[in-house]
Amino acid sequence: GSTIGILGSGQLGRMLAIAAAQLGYRCHIYAPVTGPANDVAAAFTRGAYDDAAALGAFASVVDVVTYEFENVAADALADLADRVAVRPSIAALVTAQDRVAEKRFVEQLGGRPAPWAAVADRDALDAAIAQVGTPAVLKTTRFGYDGKGQARIATPEDADAAWEAIGGGPAVLEAFVDFAHEFSIVLVRGLSGDTTSYAPPHNVHNDGILATSTLPAPPEVAAQWTEAAALAGRIAEALDHVGVLAIEFFVGADGPVFNEMAPRVHNSGHWTIEGAETSQFENHIRAICGLPLGPTGLTGTSVEMLNLIGEDAAGAARFLSVPGAHVHLYGKHESRPGRKMGHVTRVIR
Ligand code: ATP
Ligand code: MG
Ligand code: MG
């Protein structure tokens, strides 16, 4: 097919559409009724992510559908999948949109999350704290991103405040991991099952929001690369995944600790636009369109990606005069604290 449907109009969808255009594809974006859509050279359908009729209309004008975020209603997507190929599969989306389902699934494949307990209601939280211990992190099972829907629990006395802070359950309680480093595996699996992945960036988060991704990662990360990449491969295989799959890890004392996964292109892969031979966006498009995957090697000796968070275009302009800096602005109409407005990548050759 020659028209790609993208569910979601954020920066990930925008960068996917740019990569698709380079390969000669047209894009049709499905975006929510409310909120501004990022302007890309693409057609739009407006609707809600659980609106089966609007999604059906969308399905009729595209040849393959992909998504840039996880919070699409699975049943509405199932209707869509009856009419047009959805890649990655709904199974990947359903697993990744629920932290409890995701952890169970990954544990079956030999992955090791931090000790955790499902928390259905307020009473279950006390039992979970007794089981998992403190310090711990309470997270809503669904809809969290950029550290939203999370609260720290330093001592059992924090339970009420944390429960209130996340707006109640269902939730999951995780032991707090006292890590020195975080990293991610960004993998891409093609339509015929061929799989490749990028070198793992060292990711630094501030207030739960990704701040920087740096390559090559320090030796502590490199030492856990093989094991983490093997788990990512098993996850992709088990889901019969097509497209990019990103897995976040903490460097643990006894090997990689699984944090979470995303069945889509990922912020910790933005460095690949200039820093890798084929970007994650192009490789995702190649995968969902059944094309051969492109090479993933670095284009330089080191790469650094910096997120522009809560900055306006004027603030980002200072990077335009930095030699070797590639400035990406997402065209969002309004800057807010904590909002990802763009990113800058620097490749040292
Ligand atoms: P994303 O935008 O990546 O989807 P998210 O809202 O799903 O973020 P997480 O990845 O669960 O959030 O957590 C965000 C960050 O908070 C992590 O990258 C890490 O820095 C910190 N964090 C989360 N869980 C833990 C934990 N159990 N122990 C220590 N730090 C944690
Ligand atoms: Mg997440
Ligand atoms: Mg995360």
TrEMBL record:
Signal peptide: none annotated. Pfam families: ATP-grasp, PurK_C, RS_preATP-grasp-like. The keyword Nucleotide-binding applies. Pathway: Purine metabolism; IMP biosynthesis via de novo pathway; 5-amino-1-(5-phospho-D-ribosyl)imidazole-4-carboxylate from 5-amino-1-(5-phospho-D-ribosyl)imidazole (N5-CAIR route): step 1/2. Keywords: ATP-binding, Ligase, Nucleotide-binding, Purine biosynthesis. GO terms for molecular function: 5-(carboxyamino)imidazole ribonucleotide synthase activity. It catalyses: 5-amino-1-(5-phospho-beta-D-ribosyl)imidazole + hydrogencarbonate + ATP = 5-carboxyamino-1-(5-phospho-D-ribosyl)imidazole + ADP + phosphate + 2 H(+). Belongs to the PurK/PurT family. Homodimer. Catalyzes the ATP-dependent conversion of 5-aminoimidazole ribonucleotide (AIR) and HCO(3)- to N5-carboxyaminoimidazole ribonucleotide (N5-CAIR). This is N5-carboxyaminoimidazole ribonucleotide synthase. It comes from Sphingomonas qomolangmaensis. The gene is purK.
